[in-house]
Specification:
The protein is mainly beta and 250 residues long. Helix content is 9%, strand content 29%. Keywords: Signal.
């Protein structure tokens, strides 16, 4: 009997690159086409407004020369369909509630990791044992999820990681990803791969060739594993007790 081999991708805690900042251009003034009137009296005689305070340009320049976030997209970043407002992320930590798509029944919360090792994420019925995350990133693309009190300070981010060398998902390939703990943004695992649509968490994964498969959250009660798949049939064949679920930030 032929042996079927499936590659698994895990949701993991991952590390990120340093944010990039730039300075806006300062006050430029206006271009004059002739000699400027030197006094407010001369300007009023010509119907011009009075001069601003002498240090106005300097004050205005300082006001404009503040760091501004620059959008830094991944290799295959794509816009969010309807992200939470703001480009700096969500400052408050939120729990990830898991509900069954079929009837909206609450199954519990994504459980926080208790061990300093890579491990698939499962569920907990209590809020006290729930994983807490807040998202960071630009509102025009995938964001990262920083975990509160992670099992390892070197692995503070939630991301995806395959269990084998094949990192592609989709038709004829791995098809399944799972939630695990891992470090910041590297090729594998990846962390900059979440879209926040209002309060709903949507997985985003771009293959090296540029294709972006449609992904769904799944849960296996027998294995207590939350997973992501682009092919529900493939996942069901591996985990016959699988449940189609959604993750919501609360």
């Amino acid at each position: 009997m032929p042996v079927m081999i499936y590659h698994i991708f895990f949701i993991s805690i991952t590390l990120f690159s340093v944010p990039v900042f730039s300075l806006d251009e300062g006050y430029r003034g206006t271009l004059s086409l002739g000699p400027e009137p030197r006094t407010n009296g001369e300007r009023m005689a010509l119907g011009l407004p009075p001069l601003p305070p002498k240090r106005f340009a300097e004050i205005l320049a300082k006001r404009h020369k503040r760091p501004t976030r620059v959008r830094v997209h991944g290799r295959h970043a794509a816009p969010s369909p309807s992200p939470v407002a703001g480009s700096q992320g969500q400052p408050q930590f939120k729990k990830l509630k898991v509900t069954r798509c079929e009837d909206g029944a609450a199954l519990g919360y994504v459980a926080r990791p208790f061990h300093n090792r890579v491990k698939p994420f499962g569920l907990t019925p209590s809020e006290s044992g729930a994983l807490q995350v807040r998202w960071q990133g630009d509102d025009a693309g995938p964001v990262t999820l920083l975990m509160k009190k992670p099992a390892s300070v070197r692995e503070p981010y939630l991301g995806l990681s395959p269990n084998q060398s094949d990192t592609a998902i989709g038709s004829g390939s791995s098809d399944v990803l799972k939630l695990v703990a891992s470090p910041r943004d590297v090729v594998v695992p990846r962390s900059n791969m979440w879209i926040v649509n209002q309060t709903q968490l949507i997985p985003y994964y771009a293959n090296d060739g540029g294709s972006v498969p449609q992904l769904k959250f799944m849960y296996s009660p027998a294995h207590d594993q939350i997973a992501i798949t682009s092919n529900v049939t493939t996942f069901d064949s591996m985990y016959t007790d699988s449940i189609d679920v959604t993750l919501t930030l609360l």
